[in-house]
Write a structure and sequence with these properties.
The protein has 8 helices and 5 strands; from the N terminus they run αααααβββαβαβα. It has helices at residues 12-19, 39-48, 54-63, 70-80, 87-92, 151-165, 190-199, 216-226; strands at residues 107-116, 127-135, 141-146, 171-174, 202-205. The chain has a 5-stranded mixed beta sheet with strand order 3-2-1-4-5, sandwiched between helices. A hairpin with a 5-residue loop joins strand 2 and strand 3. The longest helix has 15 residues, at 151-165. The protein starts with 11 loop residues before the first helix and ends with a helix.
Length: 227
């Protein structure tokens, strides 16, 4: 029987690692860097598109085998400095922004988003037109694909978005779409005024675009396009 008093009190594998120089006594072993195998991929993707969202890049590296959490991923991005410097983005920081805020149930913002070269199984042709509807208060959004952005397809997509949202708000907000209003005056067309009357809602038209203006639906457009 072995003499227990002669045992060093360490696991044999640990002692072997000490002898082989794999670890140093007194120093904690550092876990492998899970982000390291994906550094060059991330740098290439951000070189191609410096404004690519981190959430989108995270989705991509997860499909490639990255197993870390999103917070760990973003910390690693900053540590490796994979995102290139962008002068226009840094120049915009600190400028005033116009954020449209509304209480719950007050407003839905609508906007078209065009997605080029969609998958053939979508059945929408060479360009997919996505009508996005976003609740101004919560940011919850739903969208509907359409073949084009003419009036019949607008109404059809709008009804589908309202069903997905579970109903309508008291007011709708649009950019100056020609199917909704006259661009020069912002006055509703007779056809769309009939749609608004049918649903019993008020319609607000955004003023001409201003630099650095932000709205809920624009953020959802960006999210939909990125992901």
């Amino acid at each position: 029987m072995d003499d227990l008093g002669d045992r060093p009190g360490r696991d044999r594998k640990t002692i072997r690692a000490y002898l082989n120089g794999e670890i140093t006594p007194g120093q904690r072993r550092q876990p492998p860097d899970a982000f390291a195998p994906f550094v060059e991929y991330c740098r290439q993707r951000l070189a191609d598109d410096p404004h690519l969202w981190a959430t989108t890049l995270f989705d991509e590296v997860r499909e490639l085998g990255y197993e870390g959490a999103y917070s760990t991923f973003t910390r690693a991005m900053r540590r490796y400095e994979v995102r290139p410097h962008c002068d226009p983005c840094h120049g915009a920081k600190g400028r005033d922004t116009a954020v449209i805020a509304h209480p719950p149930g007050e407003e839905i913002q609508f906007d078209w988003l065009e997605l080029p070269t969609p998958p053939g199984e979508w059945g929408v042709g060479e360009h997919a037109h996505l009508l996005v509807g976003a609740l101004s208060h919560s940011g919850r959004w739903r969208a509907q694909l359409a073949e084009c952005e003419d009036f019949p397809h607008l109404v059809q997509a709008l009804v589908a978005v309202l069903r997905k949202l579970g109903g309508t708000a008291r007011r709708w907000r649009f950019d100056r779409m020609s199917t909704v209003c006259y661009a020069s005056s912002g006055q509703l067309t007779a056809a769309f005024a009939g749609v608004a009357k049918y649903y019993g809602v008020g319609v607000d038209i955004c003023p001409p675009r201003r630099g650095n203006r932000k709205g809920v639906v624009e953020k959802m457009d960006h999210a939909a396009a990125q992901r």
